[in-house]
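Bumping my old thread because nobody answered last time. Still need a sequence for this structure:
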């Protein structure tokens, strides 16, 4: 179904075909007499979408700055041609620019979200269970990474492959050590925040039941990914300390989490960053993204600089 018909299902009449404001998924910004809105794809099937909305509504009612579905007569969310879409309000504000105060406030927001999670998966969000990587997958991905880098005059440290293979060998230990999990957006990046002036989460649709330090690891690696106003590198050591300072205002990490932090970082790199580098052939042509990839590898090879204490 074309975009014009998708938004029509929610009562938006448009003359021209809407164009997605996000290159990787349908996200349409629309105006009506009632204001400005976002129509986007969300979790499918719709039962998962309703669980997600129950989670975000609960956060919102507890004072968290997070988008929740607009109350409209058509129903929201809706299934359209086997895909679930939702209408959110369009949040006006400023994009993240890498300032210390923005980083600390982002840390506070994620800490508050984590602190509000119950000990059980009460919203029945998808449970993180990706502990089945193989050494062959790593070797194939590493070859692609080297090829992508070489085509763009970059050199990959061979130690990267060794670290990823080590992560494969550690994954079953991480699966069984009983790391605390939380209900969390699990895509807590700068491009999903708008500052009003405090950060407002505008894309919670990847929410799941995730080991808490895995969520933190994803922030460390990819907070600056896919945002033109963000630095072309992951957090510096100082920036990470500032983020943690805000985060820890509401969360006390366990000794077990601190002990397994390095292994968690290596696993999250394996799960989330390796794929970006191996499959994002076009990204390597972009100097900003290429520099981010290079700095991410350096970070992985110097994890001792990024502690939880």
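Sorry it took so long. Here it is:
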């Amino acid at each position: 179904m074309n975009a014009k018909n998708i938004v029509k299902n929610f009562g938006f009449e448009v003359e021209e075909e809407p164009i997605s404001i996000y290159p990787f998924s349908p996200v349409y910004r629309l105006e009506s007499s009632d204001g400005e809105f976002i129509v986007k794809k969300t979790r499918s099937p719709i039962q998962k979408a309703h669980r997600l909305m129950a989670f975000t509504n609960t956060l919102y009612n507890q004072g968290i700055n997070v988008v929740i579905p607009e109350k409209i007569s058509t129903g929201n969310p809706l299934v359209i041609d086997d895909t679930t879409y939702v209408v959110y309000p369009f949040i006006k504000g400023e994009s993240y620019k890498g300032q210390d105060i923005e980083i600390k406030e982002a840390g506070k927001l994620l800490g508050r979200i984590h602190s509000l999670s119950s000990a059980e998966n009460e919203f029945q969000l998808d449970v993180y269970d990706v502990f089945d990587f193989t050494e062959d997958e790593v070797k194939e991905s590493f070859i692609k990474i080297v090829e992508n880098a070489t085509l763009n005059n970059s050199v990959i440290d061979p130690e990267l492959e060794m670290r990823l293979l080590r992560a494969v060998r550690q994954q079953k230990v991480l699966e069984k050590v009983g790391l605390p999990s939380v209900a969390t957006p699990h895509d807590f990046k700068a491009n999903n925040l708008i500052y009003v002036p405090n950060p407002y989460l505008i894309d919670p649709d990847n929410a799941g039941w995730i080991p808490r330090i895995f969520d933190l690891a994803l922030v460390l690696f990819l907070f600056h990914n896919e945002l033109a106003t963000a630095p072309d590198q992951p957090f510096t050591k100082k920036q990470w300390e500032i983020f943690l300072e805000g985060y820890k205002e509401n969360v006390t990490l366990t000794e077990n989490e601190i002990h397994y932090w390095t292994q968690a970082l290596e696993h999250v790199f394996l799960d989330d960053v390796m794929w970006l580098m191996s499959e994002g052939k076009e990204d390597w042509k972009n100097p900003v993204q290429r520099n981010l990839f290079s700095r991410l590898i350096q970070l992985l090879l110097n994890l001792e600089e990024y502690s939880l204490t």
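The first strand starts at residue 27 and ends at 32. Let me know if any region looks off to you.
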